[in-house]
């Protein structure tokens, strides 16, 4: 197995090429000034089935990363979906254009009325436009007005305990009141 | 009394007037820009042209007279209820604050909040339609629970000034409030 340097943004690691499709996932930058890698014995094991790559450190798997990179399987799925959707559209056009008598004569009697060939796309488009407007409106409706207490504090911030911490310890994470924030921003000696 | 170039959140120029009546009493007045005659003319002409177009097709003279009445009544309601001329904030240490807004028709709406109910005057940021704006607000507290904010009163909400104006008002208010609370 040969080790090779590959260009991308990431930590300086050494990538070992495994037999199989080569992927540019989490690979290393170009070599440092003296050409020595920073970490030893870190390798990537790509899982071609689901686009994940796991980081092996000293042959112990430590991290699994989902990546959206192109894979042959994904290309096949995409092409199948494309063909399927084109075929579905062709069938829909067939049903929409062929007169009812011909369909009845073949034996296909229990199909929706031709009215729906036009109505369904129009319903979908109008629903899409109304959805956009309604979503915007619901968001605006749910935004608290300027004179609401929810813009300043809420139940959780008011219920937090201000217990004292150990000397030298990390203080508990809590909400800083708006008065303190204002004093810090606007009353400190800044011009 | 300084008059730097302040503006509101949409960029229209406003003016701030600070008056120090005494060491514990200050008054801030924010004046909105006046109604421009051009805008009034544009609105009136568009409404009347629309009415004339309707009259042209329906030949009903009631449309014309009703358009005149609608524009007159609309303008009167606008200057009486909507158009704010100036808003003022009067802070009297250990007594309270008085918030008043006066409309273009001369009507004045005044509210007084006593000092025992006031927790603090702060600059808060909130979502307003499609943007996030800074606004000055008074945090009120119930006398029985001094550590909790019970309600919020916004100041200068018709002439929403920008941050530089708010910081000036905030600093002046905090000088008085820190002495008298």
Walk me through the structure.
- The complex is a heterodimer of chains A (191) and B (181).
- With 191 residues, chain A is an alpha+beta fold.
- Chain A contains 5 helices and 5 strands.
- Chain A has helices at residues 72-97, 100-106, 115-142, 155-158, 178-187; strands spanning 3-4, 15-16, 42-47, 52-57, 60-66.
- In chain A, strands 3-4-5 form a 3-stranded antiparallel sheet, with no helix packed on it. Chain A has a two-stranded antiparallel sheet with strand order 1-2.
- In chain A, β3 and β4 form a beta hairpin.
- Chain A is flat and about 90 Å long.
- The relative contact order of chain A is 0.06.
- Residues 1-32 of chain A have low confidence and may be disordered.
- In chain B, strands 1-2-3-4-5-6 form a 6-stranded antiparallel sheet. A 3-stranded antiparallel sheet of chain B has the order 7-8-9, with helices on one face.
- In chain B, α1 runs antiparallel to α2 (61-82).
- Chain B has 3 helices and 9 strands; from the N terminus they run βββααββββββα.
- Chain B is elongated, with a radius of gyration of 21 Å.
- Helices cover 34% and strands 38% of the residues of chain B.
- Chain B has 181 residues and is of the alpha+beta class.
- Chain B has helices at 37-58, 61-82, 163-180; strands spanning 6-7, 13-22, 25-31, 84-92, 96-103, 108-114, 118-128, 131-140, 151-155.
- The model of chain B has no long low-confidence stretch (mean pLDDT 91).
- The interface between A and B is medium-sized, with 18 and 25 residues.
């Amino acid at each position: 197995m040969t080790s090779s340097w590959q260009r991308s943004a990431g930590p300086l690691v050494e990538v070992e090429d495994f037999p199989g499709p080569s992927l540019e996932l989490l690979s290393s930058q170009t070599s440092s000034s003296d050409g020595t890698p920073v970490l030893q014995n870190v390798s990537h094991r790509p899982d071609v089935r689901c686009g994940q790559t796991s980081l092996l450190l000293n042959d112990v798997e430590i991290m699994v990363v989902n990546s959206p990179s192109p894979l042959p399987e994904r290309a096949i799925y995409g092409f199948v979906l494309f063909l399927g959707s084109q075929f579905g559209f062709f069938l829909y056009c067939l049903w929409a254009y062929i007169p009812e008598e011909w369909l009845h004569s073949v034996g296909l009697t229990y199909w929706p009325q031709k009215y729906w060939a036009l109505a369904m796309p129009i319903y979908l488009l109008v629903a899409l436009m109304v959805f956009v407007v309604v979503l915007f409106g619901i968001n605006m409706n749910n935004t608290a007005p300027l004179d609401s207490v929810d813009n300043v504090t809420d139940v959780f911030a008011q219920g937090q305990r201000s217990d004292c911490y150990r000397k030298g310890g990390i203080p508990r994470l809590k909400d800083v009141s708006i008065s303190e924030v204002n004093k810090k921003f606007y009353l400190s000696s800044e011009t | 009394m300084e008059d730097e170039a302040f503006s509101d959140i949409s960029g229209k120029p406003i003016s701030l007037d600070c008056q120090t009546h005494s060491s514990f009493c200050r008054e801030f007045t924010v004046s909105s820009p006046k109604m421009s005659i051009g805008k009034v003319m544009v609105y009136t002409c568009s409404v009347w042209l629309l009415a004339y177009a309707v009259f042209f097709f329906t030949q009903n003279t009631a449309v014309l007279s009703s358009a005149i009445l609608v524009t007159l009544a609309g303008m009167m309601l606008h200057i009486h209820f909507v158009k704010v001329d100036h808003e003022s904030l009067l802070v009297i240490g250990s007594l309270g604050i008085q918030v008043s807004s006066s409309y273009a028709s001369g009507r004045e709406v005044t509210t007084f909040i006593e000092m025992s109910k006031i927790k603090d005057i702060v600059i808060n940021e909130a979502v307003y339609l499609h943007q996030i704006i800074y606004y000055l607000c008074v945090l009120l507290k119930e006398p029985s629970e001094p550590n909790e904010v019970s309600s919020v009163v916004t100041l200068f909400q018709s002439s929403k000034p920008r941050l530089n104006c708010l910081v000036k008002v905030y600093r002046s208010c905090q000088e008085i409030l820190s002495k008298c609370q």
